[in-house]
Amino acid sequence: MTTTMITRFVLGAVVGGAFGYGIYRWIGCSTGACPLNANPYVSVLIWSTIGAMMVGGR
C-alpha cells in the first residue's frame, strides 16, 4: 500500500465518521430503537467504515 492510498482510507474514515456523528447528533433516534442512530459510537464506527470503503483501493 502506498502512502497516498493509506491517506485516502484515513481521510474517508474521518469524513465518514464525522458524517455519522452528524447523523446521530442532528437526526438521531428519540426512542432508542434505531441501532445505527441511537448510539454515537456505533454510528461513527459504521459510517467511518462506509467512508473508508467508498474511497476504495486502486
What attributes characterize this protein structure?
71% helix, mainly alpha, 58 residues
SS-based class: mainly alpha
Largest sheet: none
How many domains, as an integer? 1
List SSEs in N-to-C order: HH
β content, as a range? under 5%
| Low-confidence spans | none
Overall number of strands: 0
Distance between the termini: 10 Å
What is the average of the pLDDT values?
88
- What is the helix content? over 70%
Task: Explain this structure.
With 58 residues, this protein is an all-alpha fold. The protein has one domain (3-55). It has 2 helices and no strands. The longest helix has 25 residues, at 3-27. The radius of gyration is 13 Å and the shape is elongated. It starts with a helix and ends with a helix.
What's this entry about, in short?
The chain has helices spanning about 5-25, 40-55.
Task: Draw up the topology in text.
Blueprint: H1 3-27, H2 40-55
